[in-house]
Design a protein that fits this description.
The complex is a heterodimer of chains A (about 350) and B (about 300). With about 350 residues, chain A is an alpha/beta fold. Chain A has 12 helices and 12 strands. In chain A, helix 7 links the parallel strand 7 and strand 8. By secondary structure, chain B is an all-alpha fold. Helix content of chain B is about 75%, strand content about 0%. Chain B contains 13 helices and 2 strands; from the N terminus they run αααααααααααααββ. Chain B has helices at about 1-30, 45-55, 60-70, 85-120, 125-140, 145-155, 175-200, 200-210, 215-225, 230-240, 245-250, 260-265, 270-300; strands spanning about 305, 310. A two-stranded antiparallel ribbon of chain B has the order 1-2. Chain B is flat and about 85 Å long. The relative contact order of chain B is 0.14. Classes of the chains: A alpha/beta (about 350), B mainly alpha (about 300). At the A-B interface, helix 2, helix 3 and helix 6 of A face helix 8 and helix 9 of B.
């Protein structure tokens, strides 16, 4: 399948009062046509910044894109002018935000908010745009779309508003949909509904999805491939099955251990990951996770591990899995001493 | 909505009644009388004049009579300008104040909004600082300093505008600037503060993600959400400005209403005091009422239910 998005060596930093935060440090990944990729990680791991950089939505200054390229559909988004970028946003790439309560304009009818993008990108007339907006609203499962289109966001519940946000994002049939924690602000039953909707829509429209979340349960439900981020770097990538069944990075293992399981004894406590992520104003010299890692070695403090391929689809950034750390290599007497 | 308006009207009527009563009481509590003058008059003349104006009757009866005439929209006859009815005095002078006031409100809102929007869009950059310096100057220089300065510079030295009067359109320029400088500055700061907040809101990010351009976002998404505090201020501003400013009208020799407010109290011109106070109160109440209605137009989340404006 064709690659729709290819991010290479992306580095983003922010000037803040205390110094420069290295929010994203050399992130590379790609998304294929029709694929759903999850980016998981805790707060501050750089996943939202990565997403907003793809849309070029971070404010510069204080933000700064230091290195890298973002090739979408054959063009490098980082080299586009703001005007050209506006033709990509909402047209070829749609975005869903975290909090549906605040991400709609309270003084504008939902219909107008959906129509705006259509009228700009597809040059639809007012009446054509309205017709399409009604279609979109019924597509995202809002009943009585013809009458609800002239209502304001405060007439909608949280879940319904998120449906409107999804309708806005999908209005122009984008090739890529970036969903930045789309269900975090919703309660669990509504979460399930919204995820079901997104999954159905993806199957209908064949849109690629980047789903940003810290909820692994959602990942299992939605995505084909998983990217785990920590301290501004990708620490592990793999198919859904590989990440859940055969996690390699201690951080990924820690994330999975901190989830409750149905087959777990009731009195068995969850295992948290102790400690806090490093301060990215002074990024650690070695592996970002080593201060919290039970298996850390001396080399972890001084050198950043490279990405190591475990299989065709799974890669991990950890010294434990490094070629030189593998038993076969060790037996032949080459590695381990490093 | 209709119940809301009806309710509001009853309250407006009641507050007006309280106001009339309070003014009447206070006015009579002030020592002195409209009939005192430097000219020596005999006791008989004094008595005749008191009888003529009804001042010889007990206070409560005077009050009753006044209310009765007020109900017929008759504000009485001035005691200083003989044979001039207060109704006529107000209607003759109010036109000037109203015209200047409306021009000045429009100027305040337009200039204030433009300055505020520019400041917010270029937050912490040169244009922001420039706009805020202009705003601070507007706030800091009182109109009695601003007005003569403007006259000296633009009328006397540059001869661009007439010094006084309101006879031609150009004559409006200087009094309008002097009258609206404070409210321009106030509105600019108000808009800037709210808009900076609004521009950081999530829905602005949604609008950007739709691919809209910066100016369109400010116009269509940010401005309306920043207007609410301005609407609140407008109600107050309108009543204040259209009844005329004593200082500005004096300096520019405009025959507006402003002068009555001070002069009638000094003269103890009872009907004129009552008349101007009531007139001002009615305007104030009416503009507040209009501001309430305007809220609903600006922000659809505010819905009017019986008795109150609720969120």
């Amino acid at each position: 399948m064709k690659t729709i998005l290819d991010v290479q060596d992306l580095s983003v930093s922010f000037d803040v009062y205390g110094g420069v935060v290295q929010a994203v440090r050399g992130v590379s990944f790609s998304v294929k046509e029709g694929e759903a990729v999850a980016i998981v990680g805790e707060s501050g791991s750089g996943k939202s910044v990565t997403a907003q950089t793809i849309m070029r939505l971070i404010a510069t200054p204080p933000g700064k894109i230091n290195r890298g390229s973002i090739v979408f559909d054959g063009q490098d988004l980082l080299s586009l002018s703001e005007k050209e970028m506006q033709k990509v946003r909402g047209n070829k790439i749609g975005m869903i935000f975290q909090d549906p309560m605040t991400s709609l304009n309270p003084t504008m009818t939902v219909g107008k908010q959906i129509m705006e993008g259509l009228m700009k990108h597809q040059r639809l007339s007012r009446s054509a745009a309205k017709k399409r907006a009604i279609e979109l609203l019924s597509m995202v499962g809002i009943p009585h779309a013809e009458s609800r289109i002239s209502q304001y966001p405060h007439h909608f519940s949280g879940g319904m508003r998120q449906r409107v946000v999804i309708a806005i994002a999908l209005a122009c049939n984008p090739a890529l949909l970036i969903a930045d924690e789309p269900t975090t602000a919703l309660d669990v039953t509504i979460q399930a509904q919204i995820l079901r909707l997104m999954k159905d829509l993806q199957q209908q429209t064949k849109t690629s999805i980047i789903l940003i979340t810290h909820d692994l349960g959602i990942v299992a439900d939605m995505c084909d491939r998983v990217i785990v981020m920590y301290a501004g770097q990708i620490v592990e990538t793999g198919t859904k099955r590989e990440i859940f069944r055969n996690p390699q990075h201690p951080y990924t293992k820690g994330l999975l251990n901190s989830l409750p399981r149905l087959d777990q004894a009731k009195d068995e406590p969850l295992v948290p990951i102790y400690g806090t992520p490093p301060d990215l104003i002074k990024p650690p010299q070695g592996c970002g996770f080593c201060s919290r890692c039970d298996e850390a070695m001396r080399i972890c403090e001084t050198d950043v591990p490279e990405m190591t391929a475990i299989s065709d689809t799974q890669t991990v950034r950890c010294w434990l899995q490094h070629v030189r750390a593998r038993p076969t290599e060790m037996d032949s007497g080459k590695g381990a001493s490093a | 909505m209709i119940r809301y308006i009806l309710n509001k009207f009853i309250f407006m009527f009641l507050s007006l009644f309280v106001l009339v009563t309070a003014t009447f009481a206070l006015m009579n509590a002030v020592p002195g009388s409209p009939l005192q003058s430097e000219k020596a008059t005999t006791e008989q003349i004094q008595k005749n004049m008191e009888a003529y104006y009804g001042l010889d009757k007990p206070l409560i009866q005077q009050y009753g009579l006044y209310l009765k005439k007020l109900a017929q929209f008759d504000l009485g006859i001035s005691m200083k300008k003989r044979f001039q009815s207060v109704n006529k005095m107000i209607s003759q002078s109010f036109g000037y104040s109203l015209r200047l006031g409306i021009v000045s409100i429009i100027t305040s809102v337009l200039a204030g909004c433009v300055l505020g929007i520019i400041a917010a869009m270029y937050h912490r950059k040169f244009l922001d600082n420039l706009a805020m310096v202009i705003a601070v100057i507007g706030l800091a220089i009182p109109s009695m300093v601003m007005a003569p300065l403007l006259q000296y510079l633009f009328s006397v030295k540059l001869r661009m505008f007439p010094v006084t009067g309101l006879k031609e359109p150009l004559a409006y320029v200087l009094p309008t600037i002097a009258l609206s400088s404070v409210s321009i500055a106030f509105i600019a700061r108000l808009i800037r503060a709210t808009m900076i907040e609004v521009l950081h809101a999530d829905f602005i990010k949604t609008a950007k993600a739709k691919g809209l351009g910066g100016h369109l976002i400010v116009w269509r998404h940010a401005l309306r959400n920043s207007m609410l505090p301005v609407v609140t201020y407008l109600g107050y501003l309108a009543a204040n400005v259209i009844t005329g400013s004593v200082i500005i009208e004096q300096i520019f020799a405009i025959p507006g209403m402003g002068k009555f407010f001070v002069q009638c109290v000094i003269d103890r011109d009872y009907p004129l005091i009552m008349g101007t106070t009531i007139f001002y109160a009615v305007l104030l109440i009416a503009t507040r009422f209009l501001a309430d209605i305007a809220y609903v137009l600006v922000d659809p989340r505010i819905r009017i239910s019986a008795g109150k404006v609720g969120g």
